[in-house]
Amino acid sequence: MIVAITGTPGTGKSSACAVLSVRGYAVMDLDEIARREGFIAGRDEARGSDEVDTEAMRRSLHVPAKVAFLTSHYSHRMDVNIAIVLRCRPSVLRSRLEARGWPPEKVRENVEAEAIDVILQEAVGRLPFVYEIDTTTLTAEQTANAVLGILQGKAEGHAPGSVDWSEEVLSWY
Ligand SMILES: Nc1ncnc2c1ncn2[C@@H]1O[C@H](COP(=O)(O)OP(=O)(O)OP(=O)(O)O)[C@@H](O)[C@H]1O
Ligand SMILES: [Mg+2]
């Protein structure tokens, strides 16, 4: 069972996966693999981020465990059994990304992507099993527990569409 832990930057993927790793689960950080194995296809200077060739990574990725969590905002593009999309209320995500010192345009782009469900839609478009977790008020421990709960069949309240930021988005206008 290969599980993608995906979601907009700042939704808490690395934090939740650190908890899963401490509990003994295999976690593969795809950003680290991209750097180590040369899947960086270029550099987007305007965005201040690396461009990863996710298709090349998908073709060559070897997962050395029967149960593993793949983490990155493109992990749902790998050959996974399930994707779990971490979500965060856009106003809270904005604060988290600003706290990283990211430039305003980069913060805005990611907050908007979260607001309109970009990653969720991409995951649903290519995978049969997709769930989402609203991490806004959760600790990393609680998020990790929710992930494991979903894998144990406690998926109620985590179906695609269960997280809805439209009310907050409408308040922007
Ligand atoms: N449950 C949480 N509650 C409050 N803050 C959190 C929570 N989880 C993570 N954070 C904070 O939010 C920020 C982003 O978390 P994290 O680095 O885990 O996100 P990420 O999804 O891995 O982002 P990226 O895609 O950029 O790697 C960090 O500053 C972290 O301390
Ligand atoms: Mg991370």
- What is Rg? 16 Å
Bound molecules: adenosine-5'-triphosphate, magnesium ion
Judged by helices, strands and strand pairing, the structural class is alpha/beta
Topology order in helix (H) and strand (E) letters = EHEHEEHEEHHHEHH
Cα shape: globular
Count of DSSP E strands?
Answer: 7
Strand order of the largest sheet: 2-5-1-6-7
The CATH class label is Alpha Beta
Measured by DSSP, the beta-strand proportion falls in 15-25%
Helix content: 40-55%
Mean pLDDT: 96
Uncertain regions spanning at least 5 consecutive residues:
none
Overall tally of domains: 1
Biggest sheet character: 5 strands, parallel
Number of helices: 8
**At the fourth CATH level, what is the homologous superfamily?**
P-loop containing nucleotide triphosphate hydrolases
Gap between N and C termini = 43 Å
Task: Give a quick rundown of the structure.
Helices cover 42% and strands 19% of the residues. The protein has 173 residues and is an alpha/beta fold. The strands form two sheets. It has a five-stranded parallel sheet, sandwiched between helices. Strands 3-4 form a two-stranded antiparallel sheet.
How would you characterize the overall build of this protein?
With 173 residues, the protein is α/β, with parallel strands linked by helices. The protein has one domain: P-loop containing nucleotide triphosphate hydrolases (Rossmann fold, 3-Layer(aba) Sandwich), CATH 3.40.50. The chain has eight helices and seven strands. It has a five-stranded parallel β-sheet with strand order 2-5-1-6-7, with helices on both faces. A two-stranded antiparallel ribbon has the order 3-4. Strand 3 (40-44) and strand 4 (49-52) form a beta hairpin. Helix 4 packs antiparallel against helix 5. The structure holds adenosine-5'-triphosphate and magnesium ion. Adenosine-5'-triphosphate is lined by residues 7, 9-15, 73, 96, 135, 138-140, 143.
